[in-house]
């Protein structure tokens, strides 16, 4: 499970990727918390991003949300890499033990038959 948040604007979304349309100007601490659904391990990564007031249209500058998204994608990729490395270090699960072979049972018709003496 993935959870993104800003210390200024609060929750930003869930999932491997999140798109943020607008963040208030200021210095944000963006946090990504990843919970491994198999082992329950939690990894947290943070990055500080300064969002400035967007200039008026026509200035040709890249909007702050594009830079934020790029940084968040890099953090997400790093966390996925860490998760894969952790999973590779976990011991593999033991294969299931096969069931024991069935016990041999003789049916009543397959018993020993003794012949009478002199028979």
Describe the protein in words.
This protein has one helix at residues 64-89, and strands at 2-6, 10-14, 26-35, 42-51. By secondary structure, it is an alpha+beta fold. It has a domain at 2-54 and 62-89. It has a four-stranded antiparallel beta sheet, with helices on one face.
Task: List strands and helices in order, with pairings.
Blueprint: E1 2-6, E2 10-14, E3 26-35, E4 42-51, H1 64-89
Antiparallel strand pairs: 1-2, 1-3, 3-4
Treating each run of at least 4 consecutive H or I residues as one helix, how many helices?
1
**What is the end-to-end distance?**
82 Å
Instruction: List low-confidence stretches.
Output: none
Overall morphology: rod-shaped
What percentage of residues falls in helices of 4 or more residues? 10-25%
Radius of gyration: 32 Å
Give the gist of this structure.
The chain is α+β, with helices and mostly antiparallel strands and 119 residues long.
């Amino acid at each position: 499970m993935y959870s993104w948040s800003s210390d200024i604007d609060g929750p930003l979304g869930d999932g491997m990727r999140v798109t943020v349309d607008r963040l208030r100007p200021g210095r944000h601490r963006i946090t990504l918390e990843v919970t491994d659904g198999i082992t329950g391990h939690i990894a947290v990564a943070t990055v500080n991003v300064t969002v400035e007031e967007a200039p008026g249209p026509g200035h040709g500058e890249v909007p702050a949300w594009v830079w934020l998204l790029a940084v968040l994608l890099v953090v997400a990729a790093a966390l996925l890499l860490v998760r894969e490395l952790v999973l590779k270090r976990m011991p593999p699960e033991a294969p299931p033990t096969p069931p024991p072979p069935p016990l041999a049972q003789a049916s009543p018709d397959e018993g020993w038959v003794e012949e009478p003496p002199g028979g």
